[in-house]
Design goal:
Order of helices and strands: HHHHHHHHHHHH
Distance between the termini: 36 Å
Number of domains: 1
Oligomer: single chain
Radius of gyration: 19 Å
Number of helices: 12
Largest sheet: none
Helix content: 55-70%
Structural class: mainly alpha
Number of strands: 0
Shape: globular
Low-confidence stretches: none
């Protein structure tokens, strides 16, 4: 990727500009109001920062899952991977390292660095380690959800529309779940658990009394999602009969 440095930098900067545009919209809203359902600008910025940083893990290392249907299954490329002595999921993932994810990571760290000084949080070694674990858990949940729905390509040939539709739901998790209807909160917590990618990790630091148990649930949800997604992937591989058969 660095062989074409300008292309690499354009990819990174474009993602950063896209994220800045979203943050600018939030800032415009808070220029006219002080809080949204009890959450101020820097608290929402903290939620947004965790979401962006967690998503960057997925985007850098696992972004190739988006292409499973149209780049591997439809043209028959996956057949070639299956006869090689290597885990096919690892092969698909390792085929591409997405440079745009570095822009996502940078903007996520900038947002966290901007919001944290304005929050009433006492930081030390343990809270920092907890934050790192929660961000990694956030990334694993993003990966697991995308892997699960990308696996439908084994039956549909290309599940990109479904993956895209589900992934767009993650935008809801950039904001406090308490501003949504109870049904939406339940859906984003226990059905497609995007709430654990940003809101619950951030809410733990902002209001530990109300959300302290969710910080324990987050790594467990991440591991459970990964196990279920990988089990579904293996089932998809068994059902796969090649597009040419």
């Amino acid at each position: 990727m660095m062989e074409y440095r300008i292309d690499f930098l354009i990819g990174v900067i474009s993602v950063m500009l896209e994220q800045f545009a979203s943050i600018f919209f939030v800032k415009v809203v808070f220029d006219h109001i002080e809080q949204i359902n009890g959450w101020n600008f820097y608290e929402i910025l903290f939620i947004y920062g965790i979401a962006a940083t967690g998503r960057s893990i997925h985007q850098i290392f696992f972004d190739n899952l988006w292409t499973l249907g149209w780049q591997y299954i439809r043209p028959g490329k996956l057949d070639r991977l299956l006869i090689r002595p290597i885990n096919p999921l690892f092969h698909v993932v390792a085929d591409r390292l997405h440079q745009d994810g570095f822009g996502q990571l940078i903007i996520g760290l900038i947002i966290l660095g901007t919001s944290i000084p304005h929050l009433d949080i006492t930081w030390g070694l343990i809270p920092v380690l907890i934050l790192i674990v929660l961000i990694i858990s956030s990334g694993l949940i993003f990966i697991a959800i995308n892997l699960f729905f990308a696996t439908f390509s084994f039956w549909m040939i290309d599940s990109l529309p479904i993956v895209w539709a589900v992934f767009n739901l993650s935008d809801f998790a950039r904001y406090p779940l308490t501003i949504y209807h109870k049904g939406i909160r339940m859906f984003l917590t226990w059905i497609i658990p995007y709430g654990f990618t940003a809101f619950y990790p951030a809410a733990y630091f902002i209001d530990q009394d109300a959300y302290k148990w969710f910080v324990l649930w987050t790594p467990l949800v991440a591991v459970t999602c990964m196990v279920l997604a990988y089990a579904f992937w293996k089932r998809g591989l068994k059902a796969f009969s090649s597009t040419g058969s």
